[in-house]
Amino acid sequence: MGNFSVSDRNSAAVFAARRRRLLLGVGGITLTSVVGSRLLSGPAGHLPSHREVSAYRKPPGPGGLVTRRNLVTRRAPVAHRPEYPPDRPLYYIHDDSRAIALTIDDGPDPVYTPQVLRLLHQYRVTATFSMVGLHVAAYPHLARTVAEDGHHIANHTWTHSNLVHRPVHRVHAELAWTSHAIHSATGVHPQLFRAPYGAWSATVLRQCEHMRMVPVDWSVDPRDWARPGVRSIVRNIMHNTRPGSIILEHDGGGNRAQTVDALSIVLPRLLREGYHFRTV
Ligand SMILES: [Zn+2]
After folding, report:
1. Contact yes or no for 280/272 (Cβ under 8 A)
2. Residue 280 has pLDDT above 50, yes or no
3. Is the link from the previous residue into 108 a cis peptide, with omega within 30 of 0?
4. Which of 80, 105, 152, 224 is catalytic?
C-alpha cells in the first residue's frame, strides 16, 4: 500500500490529465462568461500576463504537471522521502470520535452555492468552502453569506491554477490575491489552503507556511466534478467514508446539480450512521 505500481501511476496520470482538461475547460467557460477582464486582475490591480490567464483556460502541455499522486501516496504516505518537503497536507482530520469533514470546492457560484447552503442549514452541517479568488471577486456577497452561515473558507488560488512548477512569485500572487479577496468579502483571513487538483509542491507548502495557512487535501473523492450520476456519488461517499475522512465535493466550475442532489441524500445518511461534521 506504500507505493503505487507503474500501472497505478499511469492510470492515475491519465485520470489526472482527463480531470485537468475537464476542469480547466469548464472553469475557463465559467470565468469568461461571468467576469470581465477587470476581474482577471489581482486585488492590487496587477493584470496577470496573457500566459497567466491562458494557463487557466487551456490545459498545460503533456508532461508539464506533477500531481499529488506523483508526490505522495494517498492513504499511506511514505514517512521518509527525501525529495518530498518536510511537511504535507492534511488528508484526514484527527479526532477520536466519528467526526468527518465536508469540503466544497471551486465556488462561490450563484446557482449552486445557495443550494448547498440551504442543505447544510437544513441538516445543521458546518463545512469548509474552498474558494477561487476570481469567483470571490465576482460574487463577494456569496462569500460573505457562506462566512455568515458559520462555514469556513479555504483559499483555493486566484485562477484555479495548477501551481506545481510555477515560479515562487506566481504561487505567492495566486495565494495572496485570493486571501485578500476573501478577507475583503468576509472580514476573515483564510487559515486553510487547498491546492487545485491536489497538486502539491515544496514551493506551495512553504508558501502555505509563510502565509500561515494549513494545507488541506482530501481522503474521499466521489468525482462529482465528472457528473457520474447521483447514485455513483452517493455510493462512493457512503462506501469510502471513515471516521476522520475529509470529503471533497464541488459547488463551482460547472453544472453541480448532481452534487446538490447527492448531498441531499448523503447528509442525512451520514448523520444516521453516527458521523458528525467538523470543519477541518
Ligand atoms: Zn478545485
Report:
1. no
2. yes
3. yes
4. 105
Ligand 1 center from residue 196 Cα (angstroms): 4
C-alpha cell at 280: 477541518
Of 109, 217, 250, 251, which one is the catalytic site residue?
A: 250
Q: Where are the domains of the chain?
A: 6-76+89-277
pTM over 0.90: no
- CATH architecture assigned to 6-76+89-277: Alpha-Beta Barrel (3.20)
Question: Cα(251) to centroid of ligand 1, in Å?
Answer: 10
3-state secondary structure of 217: coil
250 is catalytic: yes
Contact (CB, 8 A) for 174 and 159: yes
CA distance 29 to 164: 23
| 188-220: pLDDT as tens digits | 999 999 999 999 999 999 999 999 999 999 999
Query: Do 156 and 196 form a contact (C-beta atoms < 8 A)?
Result: yes
Q: How far apart are the first and last CA of the chain?
A: 25
Q: What is the pLDDT of residue 104?
A: 98
Render pLDDT for 21-43 as a digit per residue (tens, 0 to 9): 444 434 433 443 333 333 444 54
What is the distance in A from the centroid of ligand 1 to the CA of 106?
5
